[in-house]
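Hi all, long-time lurker, first post. I run a small reading group and we've been trying to get comfortable going from sequence to structure in the token notation. Rather than ask abstract questions, I figured I'd post a concrete chain and ask someone more experienced to write out its structure so we can walk through it together at our next meeting. Sequence below, copied exactly:
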Amino acid sequence: MHKREILGTGLDLQRHNSYKIRSKPTPREPGWWWSVTTRSHVAYESWLERHHIIEADRDIRVTGISGQPFQLTWPEGRKQMRHVPDLFCRMLEGNGVVTDCRPADKIDEDLRHKAAVTAAACGVIGWEYRVAVEPDPVWAANLRWLSGYRHPRFGDEQLEELLITLFACPQPLGQAAQRAGDPIRVRPVLFHLLWRGRLSADLGRPLGETTVVTAVADPGEAA
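-- Answer (accepted) --
Happy to help. Here is the structure in token form:
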């Protein structure tokens, strides 16, 4: 494994947001996620990968997302080893984050070894590497719900300003939504603002009428 090959991969990843390396199908619910960050589809091979793509798509620090972004190969004795990480994120500062997604009980010695090699390779060019496990189920369910309102079409400038003003003082979601107007019009915009981080709530608890919501000056601080 040569440094120039890794650096070449990095340059490719700056240009391509959702190129899929693996060609063989897997039985783990593969699919494509439409990313509001990249305005394109990102490949995933499991629901766990999809969840971490959703996390990245909501993170304002992320500017690019790739699924199965590159393949690392290296010799070990007479064997040629290979590993394809699950995700790559380009960050606002220009650095990269490489992620493998595995349920905690599926992290075996083989993955640990490949993770160590991948982390070392990423370190050569200043990227971060991590292994991501299952999220809290309530958090994940809330995020999936909000992701349904991620598209810019759910935005409404006038209604957004009204909701941000109403939630300047923390109050229950249902109460403020009712004051804002027709729920069919209001709630999609409210969920869109929660997705974008302009409104904040405790997503570690079930999202509902009594969920306390507050406006956020800096979306990076949103829960």
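A couple of things your group might point at:
The mean pLDDT is 88.
The chain is about 40% helix and 20% strand.
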